[in-house]
Amino acid sequence: MTVAFRIEDKALSHVGNVRTENEDSHFADAQVGVWLVTDGMGGHANGKLASEALVAAVSAVRVPDAMESACDVVANAIHSANTAIFGHATDLGVRMGATVVALVVRGDEFAVLWAGDSRAYLHRDGQLIQLTRDHTQVQEMVDRGLLDPADAEDHPMKHVLSRAVGVQDSLEIDAVRDLAQTRDLFLLCSDGLYGVVDEAEIARIISERGIAAADALIEASLASGAPDNVTVSLVGLSEPTLLLLNGAPA
What pLDDT, on a 0 to 100 scale, did the predictor assign at position 136? Predict the structure, then answer.
């Protein structure tokens, strides 16, 4: 028996209150079961080019049905984008790159792949669970016991990345994989959201609005100053349906 969830999704992006150009990009395809948020870096055109190259690379591939193969294909697309962005930056003599977080849903399984500090959260049973771990110098200091987690939030280097797409000729991608449940809601976002809106407030908005929370999350960032671009992508799973093969339950 093959079980699949009904999926609703919504993605929004805003330039914010300070920046003049939006360097964030996102990709969403519920039929394919892949979603992505990417935050460009390198200044204006360079950051935008990097984030758009990531979206182009992932949207161009055919993602297979099997979860293991699907994750491999998405990861390979990100690696291809890394090679292209790094090569382009080297040719121009500039520095550019992008963070990336991707969600893959297959049947009753999900996987998250990421590099950088764009995040994935799971909202389940009223709780907001961070699925990703930031690739920042401050987070690495916390992981090594060199910095108290309480001091990390206001650390002056908290936005200095230790890993991103396109900044080196090779890239390591982290991933988590688990089983999904009915009424799970995933949030992919750039740091323009969680960097200015408290996680408790994010959880409250999602609890109250569900998949319709995208607008309210953007509004919350804008109300808090929105010094950076902000992008949110929400993916909600509702009761599963049986997929029929030749008129009979699979």
Answer: 79
Residue 112 and residue 102 in contact, taking contact as beta carbons nearer than 8 Å: yes
Establish how many alpha carbons lie within 13 A of residue 178's alpha carbon, considering only the half-sphere containing its beta carbon: 9
Greatest extent of the chain over all pairs of C-alpha atoms, in Å: 60
Predicted structure pTM score: 0.90
SS3 labels along 7-58: EEEEEEEECCCCCCCCCEEEEEECCCCEEEEEEEECCHHHHHHHHHHHHHHH
Pairing state of beta strands 230-242 and 185-189?
Answer: antiparallel
Burial of residue 238 (CB within 10 Å: 0-12, 13-18, 19+) is middle
Do residues 238 and 33 touch, judged by C-beta distance below 8 A? no
Confidence of residue 143 (pLDDT cuts 50, 70, 90): low
Half-sphere exposure of 237 toward its Cβ, with a 13 Å CA cutoff? 27
What is the band of 105 on the pLDDT scale with cuts at 50, 70, 90?
very high
**How distant, in Å, are the alpha carbons of 36, 105, 140, 204 from that of 229?**
16, 26, 25, 22
What is the distance of C-alpha 90 from the center of its chain? 26
Residues of 176-205 as b/e, b for ≥16 C-beta within 10 angstroms?
A: eeeebeeebbbbbbbbbbbbbbeeeebbbb
Q: What does the DSSP 8-state code read for residue 243?
A: P
